Write a sequence for this structure.
């Protein structure tokens, strides 16, 4: 039986901390689904289709593991996606106590609704202070986000890599 895990998030944009958690999940599970979900509590900067493409490119560059599948999901509950693909585990990256407090109720509900367990995984300490929200704010104010995001995301946010943007497809 294949062990399948789902790593969900808004990934707006994907950060080096996200990639660290994804890579380490790929070392534990035989197959990892990175699922880009819409978070109604957040205002998105990057359309979902572009986020998927950016993650695919970042993983191809940084994670030498072909067992990672990147998808978007907006068809219902995350546990429904997990059931559809046969995943028994959700992996959530957490940076500290605030993330644990936020994620714990969802983990309990996911276990209740779909018998899906949640594993909390800490990112490498050098990335523990980085969030997509922080990256968006720094980028919007013209700051350098290159220490926090994969090169493909940095190029995309800079807007100076026409080939990168073209290769990622049209926006939603």
């Amino acid at each position: 039986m294949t062990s399948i895990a789902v790593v969900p998030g808004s990934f707006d944009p994907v950060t080096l901390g996200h990639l660290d958690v994804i890579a380490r999940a790929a070392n534990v599970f035989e197959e990892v689904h990175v699922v880009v979900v819409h978070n109604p509590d957040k205002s998105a900067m990057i359309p979902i289709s572009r986020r998927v493409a950016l993650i695919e490119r970042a993983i191809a560059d940084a994670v030498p593991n072909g067992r990672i599948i990147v998808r978007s999901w907006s068809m219902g509950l995350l546990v429904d996606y997990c059931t559809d693909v046969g995943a028994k585990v959700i992996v959530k990256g957490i940076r500290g106590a605030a993330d644990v407090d936020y994620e714990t109720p969802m983990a309990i509900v996911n276990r209740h609704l779909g018998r899906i367990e949640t594993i909390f995984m800490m990112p490498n300490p050098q990335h523990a202070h980085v969030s997509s929200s922080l990256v968006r704010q720094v980028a919007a104010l013209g700051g350098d986000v290159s220490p926090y995001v994969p090169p493909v995301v940095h190029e995309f946010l800079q807007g100076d890599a026409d080939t990168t943007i073209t290769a990622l497809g049209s926006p939603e």
